[in-house]
Each structure stands twice: as structure tokens, then as C-alpha cells.
């Protein structure tokens, strides 16, 4: 019998900058396992970092090889922008100076502005014009703006900043409080910047009630919590300060949870979501009108054909 012929799309090229760092290390493995784009999309990873980190990148490459991941069709390790940024389909920009204990995000601004200015030019020069970009390095929203300003040939709507970690942290707090699965909670919103001035908002959040696979309706999260003081004080404070709490405990900023949120963000953006729920991007029209990057709610969409 003839073997069944299946069409396999060519691998997508995903750049991770700062790939020798904490987040990069977790993220490279998650992507190789299909956590970002699912079990049928093959990937070639471009792992980019500073020249002094090339040995570390070689180690990461060896470990990726040792994972024997079926979806991983190649690994490029480099500190050369022409090689790292060339022909990429997706870019996850983690390469930045991290926030250390006691440091506020504003302190990072000056140090990281220079990096994102440079990398904007690399994207503009070497990447595919359709490249979709997620900025992770903090202050992420500001860096996304600097990046887009320096990549004039790439559409503004292709630039996003990571807030999904804050969204996931909010979900987790509510899920623990209500002792329910986080997947049943919808419409959590994070307003503002990715910093401790953000506003986690449970006002519109609902819980879906399913029994034996049947949808029975929804209930507002706030009425289920039945403790407005907790929602207004402890919930908001915990989510706002979670990054600092992780740094205080680990002496390093969040890494695996950030990598997990990066995969969630990219998957929902590129593949769409099965139901309508809130995710946060910055949108072309908003950007055009007011010219800055902030967190914004968009609704999920189904079956976008990006591959
Ligand atoms: N938006 C979010 O939700 C979120 C969450 C967690 C961490 N972060 C941020 O993500 C960034 C990375 O975090 P991490 O824990 O992986 O940090 P890390 O210090 O472990 O790694 C950063 C890596 O970036 C590299 N790097 C520095 N300058 C570079 C440049 N110009 N080009 C390429 N690479 C460069 C470093 O060599 C290092 O390997 C930090 O800015 C951190 O604050 C954001």
C-alpha cells in the first residue's frame, strides 16, 4: 500500500534574543516541544545573544539536540545580527538587562533603550516584512515602541509586548481563591503598563459552569468571591507585586512562567483562540492615533492561516 502523503509546511524561523539567559533557556525547550505553535509546526530556532555568551549558546544547542525533538529542524546560534535576524518569521526579544532586586523599571529604561533601538534596525534590515514580534525585555511596552519606531518597514500591528504573564498571574490568584480550574475563568483584564502600576481588573471576569461536558451558564467572579475588599486590595496587590516577590525569593526574575506566558501569547495571537476571551496587545489603529504602546484587550479569533 502507498504511504499516506501529508503536506508539511516548511519550518518557521523563530528568533530568541538573550537566548543564553534565564527565559531563553526555558523558552527554547518549550518551543521545541510544540508548546508555542502546536504539534504540527516545525521550527528552526535562531538563538541570539552577546558574543561573550556564545559558549553558553553552544551548550543550549547541545541540549536541544539531546532532546531529539521531532519539531525542531535546526538551531542557529549566533551573536551576528545578520545571521540571527535574517528571514525570521517570529521574534521573541528577551535580550536586555534584567531588573535586579531593589531596581525599579524606570532604571532599566536608559540601559535598554539603546539595545532596542539597535535591534529595531536589525529587524528592519534582515527580517521578513511579515515578522511578528513579541518584546519581553523590560520595560517591555516602552521597548516595543522604541523597536517599532526603528523598524519603519514593518507594520506597527506586528509589534506586541508581553503582559500575558500578568494575565496568567491574575487567573491563578482567582483560580486558587475560588478553587476552580483557571480555564473556566474568562475576561480577566490587565490595564496599564507591565509594571507595578498596572491595574489587574476582575470587574468583568466570569466563571463558566460546565457539567458532564454541558455548558450551564456563567457567574460573575466578583459575586463568587463575595469579598470586594479581597478583590480590590489583596488580589490587585498580589498580581502587581508578583514579579518583585519572585525576584525576592529567587534573586532572579520570573523565567519559566515568563516562557510559558510567551508561548500562550504567541499561540493565541497567531493561531487564534477557540472562544472569545481577553488578551492584551497594542493595536495598529490605537498606535496611529496616540503613538504609544500600552496594554489593550483584543478578542480571540479562529483559524487564522499563518502557516
Ligand atoms: N514582560 C514580562 O512579563 C517579563 C517577565 C520576566 C522577565 N522579563 C524581562 O525579560 C528580560 C530577560 O529576562 P532573563 O531573566 O532571561 O534575563 P537574563 O539576564 O537571564 O538574560 C538576558 C540575556 O540577554 C542577553 N543580552 C543582553 N544584552 C543583549 C543584547 N544587546 N543583545 C542580545 N542579547 C543581550 C544577556 O547576555 C543575557 O543572556 C529582562 O529584561 C526581564 O526583566 C519580562
**Cα shape:** globular
Distance between the termini: 30 Å
What share of residues is helical? 40-55%
Count of structural domains: 2
CATH-level-4 superfamily name of the largest domain: NAD(P)-binding Rossmann-like Domain
- Strand fraction band? 15-25%
Structural class: alpha/beta
CATH class of the largest domain: Alpha Beta
Q: Average pLDDT, to the nearest integer?
A: 87
Catalogue the ligands. Answer: nicotinamide-adenine-dinucleotide
Number of strands: 13
Low-confidence stretches: 276-287, 300-307
The total count of helices amounts to 11
Q: How would you describe this structure to a colleague?
A:
The protein folds into two domains: 12-162, NAD(P)-binding Rossmann-like Domain (Rossmann fold, 3-Layer(aba) Sandwich); 164-280, L-2-Hydroxyisocaproate Dehydrogenase, Chain A, domain 2. A six-stranded parallel β-sheet has the order 3-2-1-4-5-6. The chain has a three-stranded antiparallel β-sheet with strand order 7-10-11. The chain has a two-stranded antiparallel ribbon with strand order 8-9. It has eleven helices and 13 strands. The model is unreliable at 276-287 and 300-307 (pLDDT under 50). With 307 residues, the chain is of the alpha/beta class. 39% of the residues are buried. The longest helix is centred in the middle third of the chain and has 22 residues, at 105-126. Helix 1 packs across helix 10 (256-271), helix 4 (105-126) runs parallel beside helix 5 (140-149) and helix 6 runs antiparallel to helix 8. It binds nicotinamide-adenine-dinucleotide (NAD).
Amino acid at each position: 500500500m502507498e504511504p499516506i502523503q501529508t503536506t508539511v509546511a516548511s519550518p518557521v524561523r523563530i528568533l530568541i534574543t538573550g537566548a543564553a539567559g534565564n527565559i531563553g533557556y526555558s523558552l527554547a525547550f518549550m518551543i521545541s516541544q510544540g508548546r508555542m505553535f502546536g504539534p504540527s509546526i516545525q521550527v528552526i530556532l535562531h538563538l541570539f545573544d552577546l558574543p561573550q555568551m556564545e559558549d553558553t549558546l553552544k551548550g543550549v544547542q547541545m541540549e536541544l539536540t539531546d532532546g531529539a525533538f521531532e519539531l525542531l529542524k535546526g538551531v542557529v546560534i549566533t551573536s551576528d545580527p545578520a545571521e540571527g535576524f535574517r528571514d525570521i518569521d517570529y521574534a521573541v526579544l528577551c535580550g536586555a538587562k534584567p531588573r535586579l532586586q531593589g531596581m525599579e523599571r524606570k532604571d532599566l529604561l536608559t540601559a535598554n533603550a539603546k539595545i532596542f533601538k539597535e535591534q529595531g534596525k536589525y529587524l528592519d534590515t534582515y527580517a521578513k516584512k511579515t515578522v511578528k514580534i513579541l518584546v519581553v525585555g523590560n520595560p517591555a511596552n516602552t521597548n516595543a515602541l522604541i523597536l517599532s519606531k526603528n523598524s519603519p518597514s514593518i507594520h506597527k500591528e506586528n509589534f506586541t509586548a508581553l503582559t500575558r504573564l500578568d494575565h496568567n498571574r491574575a487567573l491563578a490568584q482567582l483560580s486558587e481563591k475560588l478553587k476552580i480550574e483557571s480555564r473556566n475563568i474568562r475576561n480577566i483584564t490587565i490595564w496599564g503598563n507591565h509594571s507595578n502600576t498596572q491595574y489587574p481588573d476582575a470587574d468583568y471576569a466570569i466563571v463558566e459552569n460546565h457539567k458532564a461536558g454541558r455548558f450551564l451558564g456563567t457567574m460573575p467572579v466578583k459575586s463568587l468571591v463575595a469579598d470586594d475588599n479581597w478583590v480590590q486590595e489583596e488580589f490587585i496587590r498580589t498580581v502587581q507585586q508578583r514579579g518583585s516577590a519572585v525576584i525576592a525569593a529567587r534573586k532572579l526574575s520570573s523565567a519559566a512562567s515568563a516562557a510559558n506566558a510567551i508561548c500562550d501569547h504567541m499561540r493565541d495571537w497567531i493561531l487564534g483562540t477557540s472562544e472569545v476571551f481577553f488578551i492584551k496587545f497594542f493595536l495598529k489603529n490605537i498606535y496611529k492615533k496616540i503613538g504609544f504602546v500600552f496594554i489593550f484587550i483584543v478578542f480571540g479569533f479562529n483559524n487564522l492561516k499563518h502557516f
